[in-house]
Amino acid sequence: MAARGTLSFGPDFTPASVHHASGKLSWMVWEVLEHWSSPLSPSQRLASSEVVEAWRLEVSGPLPWRPGERGRFVMTAVTYGNRPGWWLSPVTP
């Protein structure tokens, strides 16, 4: 299940950190594993319910389903044209 969140971008325009919408959880980005962006124009993106941008990231911080423990794992961050914000999901091995 995806949770809402935000991405903070570094000077190279790649995610540097990820933050859960609650403001209580955040993760540091170690590596960008994959990035995808839609070829649609900005006006077409806003009218679309499709994924318009996606990042696959190796992050460190609170572990999924065990926020009391810390470690590294892979997370996706996806945004949709007609939905504001980023949607975060851990990648299961």
Percent helix, as a range, is: under 10%
Instruction: Give the mean pLDDT.
Output: 89
Taking all Cα atoms into account, the compactness measure Rg is 13 Å
The biggest sheet amounts to:
6 strands, antiparallel, barrel
Q: Give the end-to-end Cα distance, rounded to a whole number of Å.
A: 15 Å
How many domains is the backbone divided into? 1
Uncertain residue segments: none
Structural class from helices and strands? mainly beta
- Helix and strand string, N-terminal first? EEEHEEE
Counting DSSP H or I runs of 4 or more residues, the number of helices is 1
What's the β-strand tally? 6
Question: Which term fits the overall shape?
Answer: globular
| Beta-strand residue fraction | over 45%
Short précis:
With 93 residues, the chain is mainly β.
Describe this structure in words.
The protein is mainly β and 93 residues long. 14% of the residues are buried. It has one helix spanning 42-46; strands at 3-9, 15-20, 26-37, 51-63, 66-80, 83-90. 5% of the residues lie in helices and 66% in strands. The model has no long low-confidence stretch (mean pLDDT 89). The protein has a six-stranded antiparallel β-barrel. A hairpin with a 2-residue loop joins strand 4 and strand 5 (66-80). The chain has one domain (3-90).
